[in-house]
Design goal:
The strands form two sheets. Strands 1-2-3-4 form a four-stranded antiparallel β-sheet, with no helix packed on it. The protein has a four-stranded antiparallel β-sheet with strand order 5-6-7-8, with no helix packed on it. It is mainly β and about 130 residues long. It has strands spanning about 10-15, 20-30, 30-40, 50-55, 55-60, 75-80, 80-90, 100-105.
């Protein structure tokens, strides 16, 4: 018997061009394939580590905004198995002046909201099948 646990997945990460300490790739766990990133960093004690992050979606820059208050970026995310819509705005903190991104997550426009989905209609009953 081996002292090692059974493998449940594998993947490959490649260096990101132009980013010295970042790697991206895919990992497969069972039948599920995930996009993954690793960022090389150092702990306070000087130990090197690679922080792993699983990608849940992407934001795309809005090239031509229809409304000046509209989002700067939009995209879709998968959260707990549900597809949701993400909108994001570039902002600046009032006190510090630091840049940040503000996110808003909402139900996807591509699928009906769960709360509004009607239950399936029962199959029609054929009166001739009733024995009385």
């Amino acid at each position: 018997m081996s002292d090692y646990p059974k493998d449940i997945g594998s993947g490959v990460l490649f260096p990101v061009e132009g980013r010295e300490n970042e790697y991206q790739g895919n990992i497969e766990i069972g039948e599920n394939k995930h996009r993954i990133s690793a960022v090389k960093t150092t702990t306070r004690k000087g130990q090197t580590l690679y922080s792993l992050q699983v990608e849940i979606g992407a934001l795309f820059v809005v090239e031509e905004k229809r409304n000046p208050n509209g989002p700067d970026m939009t995209g879709k995310l998968e959260v707990e198995g549900d597809l949701v819509r993400a909108a994001a705005w570039h902002k600046k903190a009032k006190n510090s002046g630091n840049d940040f991104i503000s996110l808003n997550i909402s139900e996807s426009r591509d699928q009906p909201p769960k709360s509004e989905s009607a239950p399936a209609s029962p199959a029609p009953v054929n009166d001739s099948d009733i024995p009385f």
